[in-house]
Amino acid sequence: MVWIIVAACELVIIGLLLFFLLRGRSSQKKIIDKASDIARGQIGVDDIKLRAEKSSNGIVAGAFNSIKNNLLTFIEATKNNVVTITDAVDKLTESAEANTQDNKSIADGAAQVAEKTSEQFEIVKNNLELIESSNARMQEINAAISLVEGTLSQVTGNSHEGLQRLESYKDDMSVMADNLNRIDSILLEFNQEIAKISEIGDFIIDINEQLILLALNASIEAARAGEVGRGFAVVAGQMNEMSVKTKEGMDSITSILGEIVESSKQVNESIKNCSDTYDKSQVTFELVNTSFKTINEQNQDIQAKMEEIMAKFEIVADNSEDSRTMAQNIYKTSEAISERTESIASVTTKVSEQSKRIGDYAGELGGMLKGIQRLLGGFNTAITPTKTRPISGKKVRILAISMLDNDFWFGVKRGANYAITEMSELPAEIIYEGIVPYEGWGDDLAKKINKLVDEGLDGITFPGFIDSIVPALARAQAAGVKIISYNCECSSRVKRLALYAPDNADQARSAAKATVDYLEKRGNVLILESDMTIGSNKIRSEAFLDAIESYHGINIVGKVPIGDSAEDVYNKTAKAIREHMDIQVIYVISGYLDAAAKAIVDAGLQSRVKAVGFDHTPIIFDYIKRGAILAAVGQDAFGQGHDPIVYLYNNIVTGEALPSDTILCRASVVDGDNVGNMVM
């Protein structure tokens, strides 16, 4: 396929050269020189630039440039595909080998499965018998639990009834205590009444003693009176007798009252003892009552637990039944497995044979890829690695650093990957480090560089604008590590071997020429400026302004600073075209040209406003076709990723000097006239 395309390209070029051989000898010489370069395999040449592009020679040059650029694009795309397919072949080969080994293992495993399946039959059968036995035991346990549950229910009922009786007994005891208290009050009143009676008795005895004295006095007076006083003597005698009887009666009453008082004291003591005993019984009752409540609560808890156990037991019983069913299914499945194991072993053998054929095909595909690589080597689009072996006999270790935050850097990565594939059979270890910016990434990268230097590193390629790693690079250089910067010039503190970069001034002039031609030397231009401390950005800005300075009809309406993100470029472009309705061209001096084009398309202004800038990607080509991008100047992203690595490797191995202190990468312009011919 590659030879057909190459042959077709050569035929077209030869035909065009013959057709215009007699026209414009100066222009023809340029065309012939470029054609000669291509005939020698030097595909990586610059575009033919003619002033009279609409002349016949200009048309031929444009066609030549398109064919050459398409051939370059095809070759570089093929290189990318070689990397991708090589990785796929390696993985396919590994997978085929692993699959063959796995199939062998499966076949061996199938035989073991067949052997183990018979053992499984016995195990499942025994398991079924155990499950049946377990079911019988579980039914017995279920019956026992039911009896325990019934007994607990009776105990709970009895405990509840006992609590009710204790409450009734407590009420009766309270009534008895109230009655004892009332009796104690009555006895107290009775004792008080007896005391009053005793006082009356004392009064009567006192009167009786006075009567005795009175009777004695009456007897004395009656004796004195003689016969006349005899009657008084009789009265006095009767009074003495009555006093004696009164005293005897009062003595008897006093004795009885004393016995009553003594009995009352004994009753009081008995009542007090009853009261004390009641108080003690109250404490005992409370303890008994509490115990009964505790017993009742515990019985209720036990009953609840038994109900819970019964529920779980039912689940276990259900699970046991399910287990029995599953065991039966396993038994049946084991029979099916046993039947199918032999067929699996047979199929595995066939798959193993197919895997071997896949491995053979992968080997053939790998050989074909090596042939394609040799074919690509016939077209000198870039520098090729030397076949000279290092004198030290050790692998050459090179660290390749790039950013990885937009399409341009993905192109750089593809170039680095091709270098890794191209040098896979050489004594080289290429360590690619793609950076997606995050906070502190510069410090982390510097640490990695220091670590690799300590482990042993021979070379470093890096974008010259990464200033945060300059101290680490200086340390590496002091340790003998060789360095090539690319994309733009690096800090003067880094003594690099060479700078590999586009001719930023020439690229800016190409962008300016496309702008002037589109505006027909009259119109308004806005410049979107990125970080102007980066040398390439500054050169692109100054060279663009110098190129259009002589065209007085072209006005620079403003310079808008932009950040290093697609979102910021989009927003700044959208704002600019809203605020400046007279803008016709927007010059983007850094990346994200596609973001500016998207803002123009979203505003529906692609028929009036165009963007111009750098990089060649499928999306940029699409925006050129849609009219939002006027022209895009290529920076050879693939070459910036590939060539510095190979140049550095060759220098380290052979010690040969590099072609120049500054090596310019290939440049080309894609616009509306040739974008339809681009292969991407």
Quick synopsis:
The chain has 680 residues and is an alpha/beta fold. The protein has 13 helices and twelve strands.
Mean pLDDT over the residues:
77
**Count of extended strands:** 12
Shape: elongated
What's the CATH topology name of the domain at 150-330? Helix Hairpins
Question: Percent helix among the residues?
Answer: 55-70%
- The percentage of residues in β strands lies in 5-15%
List low-pLDDT spans: none
The Rg value, from CA coordinates, equals 61 Å
Number of helices: 13
First-last Cα distance:
17 Å
Major beta sheet summary: 6 strands, parallel
What does this structure look like?
This protein is of the alpha/beta class and 680 residues long. Among the domains are: 181 residues, Orthogonal Bundle (Helix Hairpins), CATH 1.10.287; 130 residues, Response regulator (Rossmann fold, 3-Layer(aba) Sandwich), CATH 3.40.50.2300. The protein has 13 helices and twelve strands. Helix 5 runs parallel beside helix 13. The longest helix is centred in the first third of the chain and has 170 residues. The mean pLDDT is 77.
How would the blueprint of this fold be written?
Layout: H1 2-19, H2 25-39, H3 56-225, H4 230-377, E1 396-403, H5 407-422, E2 428-435, H6 441-455, E3 459-463, H7 470-478, E4 482-486, E5 498-501, H8 504-519, E6 523-529, H9 535-548, E7 554-561, H10 566-579, E8 585-588, H11 593-602, E9 610-614, H12 618-625, E10 629-633, H13 637-654, E11 662-664, E12 669-671
Parallel strand pairs: 1-2, 1-3, 3-4, 4-5, 5-11, 6-7, 6-8, 8-9, 9-10
Antiparallel strand pairs: 10-12
